[in-house]
Each structure stands twice: as C-alpha cells, then as structure tokens.
Amino acid sequence: QVQLEEAGGGLVQAGGSLRLSCSASENIFRRDTMGWYHQAPGKQRELVASLINGGSKNYADSVKGRFTVARTANGYTVFLQMNSLKPEDTGVYYCSARGDWGQGTQVTVSS
User: Fold this and answer.
1) Distance of alpha carbon 63 from its chain centroid, rounded?
2) Going by C-beta distance under 8 Å and a sequence separation of 6 or more, which residues neighbour residue 55?
3) What is the DSSP string of 77-108?
4) Exposed, middle or buried: residue 16 (CB in 10 Å: 0-12, 13-18, 19+)?
5) Phi/psi at 11 (5° precision)
6) Which residues touch 52 (CB under 8 Å, ≥6 apart)?
7) Residue 22: which of 109, 101, 106, 107 has the closest Cα?
8) pLDDT for 3-35, tens place per residue?
9) Rounded CA gap, 93 and 81, in Å?
C-alpha cells in the first residue's frame, strides 16, 4: 500500500492560481498511472487529470487548458497546476494511484 498526501489547497479568488502536490511514500509516479480527482460539495468525485505511466496526460474537458499535471523526475511527487480558477472548481481534490487515496486538500474559489 502506498501512502499519498496532498497539499497546496486554499482560498483563492476567481481567476487566480493554485498548485497542488501529491507526495507518495514510494517513487511510483515514474511509471504508474495516477489521477487527480475533484469532489465538489454534494457531488460525486470526478477525475479531472491523469498522468499515465509516468508520461502522457489526460484532462477532463472542464479543466483542459487551465490545469496541468506534472511529476518530479524522481517520481515521488505529482503536481496539479491550476490556473484561471473558477468558483465551480471549489471542492476537495484527491490524488489516487494503485487503488490508494490521499486524504484530500480543500480548494475554495471565491467569486
């Protein structure tokens, strides 16, 4: 079981930026697939970005062009750069890999 920990959430105005990080207890991100998930208040968790086998990246239409996922060379950390944030981006963001989840980090975007 890999331990995952998210950080970097906070309160930001619409149009602002945040960078989330997901740190793993093993350097799994060089080759494994991971996902960033967003859970808005009262809604189901949804996949917004993924890093596939440490290389290619996919994004949900709702964040395409605004969010970018990247990893460190050593494979221990993945970042989610979030730009042009909107109030609908508010919620808890989770990272997941190998069936494991972090505890999430809260992002609040004020209008």
Assistant:
1) 11
2) none
3) EEEEEE-S--GGG-EEEEEEETTEE---EEEE
4) middle
5) -105, 130
6) 33, 58
7) 101
8) 999 999 999 999 999 999 999 999 999 999 999
9) 12
Sheet holding 67-71, edge to edge: 4-7, 18-24, 77-82, 67-71
Which 8-state DSSP code applies to residue 58? E
Contact 84, 15 (CB under 8 A): yes
pLDDT per residue as tens digits for the range 48-97 = 999 999 999 999 999 999 999 999 999 999 999 999 999 999 999 999 99
Tell me the C-alpha distance between 93 and 46, whole Å: 9
Q: Which residue has the tokens 């959430």?
A: 9
3-state helix, strand, coil in the chain (%, to 5): 5, 55, 40
